[in-house]
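Please, why this fold?
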Amino acid sequence: MAYTSDLSDPEWDLIKHYFQAKTNRGSSYKHAKKQIVNGIFYLVKGGITWRMLPNDFPPWQTVYDHFSRWNKTGVWEMVLDRLNRIWRKKLGRKASSSYGIIDAQSVKTQYASEDRGIDGGKKVKGHKRHIVVDILGNLLCVFVHAANLSDTKSACEVMARAKEKHPSISAFSGDAGYRGTAVTFAAEKLNITLHISERITDTWAVMPKRWVVERTFAWLNNFRRLAKDFEVLSATSENIIRIAMIKLKLAKCV
């Protein structure tokens, strides 16, 4: 492995069939798919621009073209879902999650990106990353939107997405910022309960279940491409987050 972000052979064997599309032109490719995926992992981990990919990867145009194509076909989401199931089974749990923990993180955007807004409470102009994780911290759903949207309203969309994708979810957990609209939406539209975690004391304290989603955000902070939101499209931002989680999960599943 030339870089720490590169895939090992066992890691690649676990996911390679998602990236090797069937074609009538034979199985020969100018560039190995593993090297293209390694280039994407390198960019997300190192926080560089596409044009600054080292020369030992395929040309950046080729890497970006595959990245964009896999975004549109939902490859990253399929890979992450499979790794989540593998990891849950490895720990003796059911493959499907039954409990979702929700939280949001406001981040600055570098460019005039899609769905940009100002989070007045945190003084951040950019996007808000809304995620749902299971009790192990596995990413179940991500929704990137303008930072000016309130948590209690935007939570409705991410919960609906998570419930549609994971019908086995029977309840959600969120902090006090999700009281009101989100609780009502979960009960009336999704027919499940959104548990609100109240602060135990007036001082800092670890809140039961809440620390799980905070730990997931801490994991994501290790990827420099996520230090700010450098993507123009919200859907691309969501896939960058999925790619970071894929890299984290691969190390656990092999």
About this structure: The longest helix spans residues 234-253. The beta strands are 99-108, 117-119, 124-133, 139-146, 171-175, 193-197. The radius of gyration is 19 Å.
